[in-house]
Amino acid sequence: MRVGVLTGGGDCPGLNAVIRGIVRKGVQEYGYGFVGFRDGWRGPLENYTVRLDIPAVRGILPRGGTILGSSRTNPLKQEDGIRRIKENLAEQEVEALIVIGGEDTLGVAAELSDHHGVPCVGVPKTIDNDLSATDYTFGFDTAVNIATEAIDRLHTTAESHMRVLVCEVMGRHAGWIALHSGLAGGANVILIPEQRFDVEQVCAWVTSRFRASYAPIVVVAEGAMPKDGDVVLKDGSQDSFGHVRLSGVGEWLAKEIERRTGKEARTTVLGHVQRGGTPSAFDRWLATRFGLHAIDAVRDGDFGQMVALRGTDIVRVPIAEATARLKTVDPRLYEEVGVFFG
Ligand code: F6P
């Protein structure tokens, strides 16, 4: 059997660990051959391939990014996309495709597998941890560790200068990174996309923190919105996935805090640093296990399924179930951390 592998969407620490797990087990235990498709769905669309064998995966476990490259290409939005993919898979003699990606990439896999006879197995990937049907996605732990270290470092400048330091982390639709890193880093305010925030309330927390002779750290997810701030924070344009482009909630918030409290405020936007570099031990462990279980699903002919973490077990769930809706932060969980605000 010849198996195709692709990685789509934003890069994520642990992608190479998944690829290594798939290839090592597939070659050694099942005698499969592999072909790597370059740059996400662009690979099978344009028949753009790369050699994928044991030597190709040697030494990649601790490496960030993806040896296969990635893109946000969506073949369902291209004329003849499905036909071209089917033709190219046939030309490559690929009998199964392992798709490693987030909501968009896996959404394509669900459509192709369920409605067009393309046998896909999914592996959930995103630093945002917002994919349903799995307790965790790999990449999230690394991103949280990077953000937590940054917040730890921001505390010293905040205290030395008695400033407000606003730290903007990733998370367009879900506040998992903000919630986990904010709690781990001892933030005084955490703002997430799931709960619109009141700027006056944020300023009250900031002021009360100063009154206790401490300098406040505000962690804000890039998708967090003030109650009446749509006009300020959305520039109206959309990316190719229909996501509204955000324009710097962190910067905006620091200015508002300065204006309303008279305290000096600065912003740090962590951006792609959160996705870069070597994966944490947990992410290597999770990604490797996902890879091993994905190739088992191929062996079992269990297509249209995604591997997922439930507790400590890896299970299989329909890809369509995982992509049907995003997993957002439960309001009760958010309320729980509220005790530290102010
Ligand atoms: O989905 C992962 C993610 O890193 C989000 O947290 C972020 O909003 C988005 O991707 C950024 O995408 P890009 O790198 O394409 O700007």
Automatic annotation (TrEMBL):
Its cofactor is Mg(2+). Mg(2+) binds at residue 103. Gene3D superfamilies: 3.40.50.450, Phosphofructokinase domain. InterPro entries: ATP_PFK, ATP_PFK_prok-type, Phosphofructokinase_CS, Phosphofructokinase_dom, Phosphofructokinase_III, PKF_sf. Its EC number is 2.7.1.90. Pfam families: PFK. Non-allosteric. The active site is at 128 (proton acceptor). It is found in: Cytoplasm. Keywords: Cytoplasm, Glycolysis, Kinase, Magnesium, Metal-binding, Transferase. Substrate binds at residues 126-128, 163, 170-172, 222, 266, 272-275. Transmembrane segments: none annotated. Belongs to the phosphofructokinase type A (PFKA) family. Mixed-substrate PFK group III subfamily. This is Pyrophosphate--fructose 6-phosphate 1-phosphotransferase. It comes from Streptomyces cellulosae. The gene is pfp.
